[in-house]
Design brief:
The protein is of the alpha/beta class and about 300 residues long. The protein has helices spanning about 20-30, 60-65, 95, 115-120, 215-220, 235-240, 260-265, 290-300, and strands at about 1-5, 40-45, 50-55, 85, 110, 135-140, 145-150, 155-165, 165, 185, 190-195, 205, 225-230, 270-275, 300-305, 310. It has one domain: 4-Layer Sandwich (Metallo-beta-lactamase, Chain A), CATH 3.60.15.10. The strands form three sheets. A seven-stranded mixed sheet has the order 6-5-4-3-2-1-16. Strands 7-8-11-12-13-14-15 form a seven-stranded mixed sheet. It has a two-stranded antiparallel ribbon with strand order 9-10. The chain binds D-malate and manganese (II) ion. D-malate (MLT) binds near residues 11, 94 and 170.
């Protein structure tokens, strides 16, 4: 199996279009040690030919252009794609807006939880992907769901999905008291274990997670590889950077650092390789020469970059 991180940034990417914070400026100016990153997406293939996307970011067009494996085969039909399916881990804009760029009556399958499918259903713009051509399938919390393409052919990729502590999508907060509790542990946000048929190994992909609880620690014990929510380094980072008013917790994202952070929360859990993904443009670890990057590395974590590949 091959797994490629084709978008390692959180919503907005690095640089973010309207952001003048030091990290976006550094990426724009090509500063050494601060690399541009596109928005949250991972792709996996069992046979190196057909690929399953995990989330479809607004940068999907650029990501396909940067990833030859995702482009039409040179000897392929006039209109074709190696992308067989898209598995959605929530309905956030950085995870679903790219679906709109995958129109053109091209068959592939979409998998999402009941909540995520209901959100697509409620937003008529997604009908540009005619369900007769692009079937939408329920991703029920289960062991080992084989991901199939639009014609029901097996991709060879198998997924275990499980709800994680998270939050409803930002745009679903509309009209509700901004101080209200938008947290949701029931399927608005999920994690997945990506593997091949008959394998117990694989990669856990959890780009959004508000807390590390007992159930998650148990599930991740002995994982070969974890791609985990690396949105913020400190909970109040966006406030301190003066680019926003929300904490990581309010956005449904656990911080890397601190007693309640992910580094501490998973420190004693046996995991082969741990890699932060979905990194926000305020997170100091984006600077390879920062003390925070050194601290993350010393704690045994890697920081994903676009194009990073994990092979099994
Ligand atoms: C998130 O990860 O919290 C969302 O992508 C935020 C957003 O929709 O901008
Ligand atoms: Mn996001």
């Amino acid at each position: 199996m091959r797994v490629k991180i084709i978008g390692s940034a959180a919503g907005g990417g690095l640089p973010q279009w309207n952001c003048n914070y030091r990290l976006s400026r550094a990426a724009r100016s090509g500063m050494l040690g601060v690399h541009s990153r596109t928005q949250s997406c991972v792709t996996a293939s069992a046979d190196g030919t057909g690929w399953v996307l995990f989330n479809a970011s607004p940068d999907i067009r650029q990501q396909i252009a940067q990833t030859p494996e995702l482009q039409p085969a040179l000897d392929g039909p006039l209109r074709s794609t190696p992308i067989r399916a898209v598995v959605l881990t929530n309905a956030d804009i950085d995870h679903v807006a790219g679906l709109l760029s995958l129109r053109e009556r091209q068959p592939f399958a979409i998998y999402g939880t009941a909540q995520v499918l209901a959100t697509l259903e409620a937003n008529a713009i997604f009908n540009v992907l005619d369900p007769a051509i692009v079937p939408r399938r329920l991703l029920a919390p289960t062991e080992e769901l084989p991901i199939r393409d639009a014609e029901d052919g097996e991709t060879g990729i198998v997924v275990d999905s499980f709800p994680v502590p998270g939050k409803v999508a930002l745009y679903l907060e509309q009209g509700r008291d901004p101080g209200a509790d938008f947290s949701s542990d029931t399927g608005h946000t999920i994690g997945v274990r990506i593997t091949e048929a008959g394998s117990r190994g694989g990669v856990f992909y959890i780009p959004g997670c508000a807390r590390i609880d007992v159930a998650l620690r148990a599930r991740l014990t002995h994982a070969a590889c974890l791609l985990f929510d690396g949105t913020v380094y400190t909970d109040d980072e966006m406030i301190a950077a003066r680019v926003g008013q929300k904490t990581g917790a309010r956005m449904g994202h656990i911080a890397m650092s601190g007693e309640a952070g992910s580094i501490a929360g998973l420190a004693d859990v046996k995991i082969g390789r741990r890699i932060f993904v979905h990194i926000n443009n305020t997170n100091p670890v984006l600077d390879e020469n920062s003390t925070e990057r050194a601290a993350v590395k010393a704690a045994g974590w890697e920081v994903a970059s676009d194009g990073m590949e994990i092979q099994f």
